[in-house]
Amino acid sequence: MAQGYPHGKFRFKVEIDGLTAGGFSEVSGFDASIDVIEYREGDKVQTPLKVPGLKKYGNITLKQGLMDSDVLYQWMATGLEKDVDRKTITITLIDIDGNDAASWQVINAWPTKYTAPDFNAASSEVAVETLEIAHEGMTRTK
Q1: Are 30 and 15 a contacting pair, CB within 8 Å?
Q2: Which residues are bridge partners to 92 per DSSP?
Q3: What is the mean pLDDT of residues 3-20?
């Protein structure tokens, strides 16, 4: 691919440690942020000092066309019945030539919400299940 052009976001793969979950149609919401704490002493200038606070990671939403496999639901069900099963998730963007272009690793990930598909007899859409994932850290590995 010629240098200088951004990659498309439509070709990617998701790998969940120890699970064979199939392909996903959408991955969204993974981000990192640092809270800002403003501090001002009474006799100082009017502009407050800004210092870093808590580091936060947003939940990731995975969407997948419903298949015969119930592996995502079972991962969630495990957490409902006993301790959550934390896993490492790798999300990789694939370039036009089929090579890995960028990759993010998400650590200590576990499902917080499972949503079954909506059903409508008048619709011709694919049934999609959704899994929301909480995690404790994100690193860009490529």
Answers
A1: no
A2: 13, 103
A3: 85
How much is the pLDDT for 1?
Answer: 45
Residue 137 CB contacts under 8 Å (≥ 6 apart), including other chains: 57, 106, 107, 108
Three-point CA angle 88, 90, 96, nearest 5°: 175
What is the CB neighbour count within 10 angstroms for residue 120?
Answer: 9
Tell me the whole-structure pTM to 2 decimals.
Answer: 0.83
Separation CA 142–CA 103 (nearest Å): 5
What is the predicted pLDDT for the residue at 114?
A: 95
Backbone angles phi, psi at 123, to 5 degrees: -100, 155
Q: What is the spatial distance between Cα 65 and Cα 99, in angstroms, rounded to a whole number?
A: 24
- Residue 87 above 80 pLDDT? yes
Q: Measured between alpha carbons, how far is 76 from 110 in angstroms, rounded to an integer? A: 8
- The C-alpha angle with vertex 72 and arms to 118 and 32, in degrees rounded to 5, equals 95
Q: By CB neighbour count within 10 A (0-12 exposed, 13-18 middle, 19+ buried), where does 45 fall?
A: exposed
Q: What does the pLDDT average to over 81-106?
A: 93
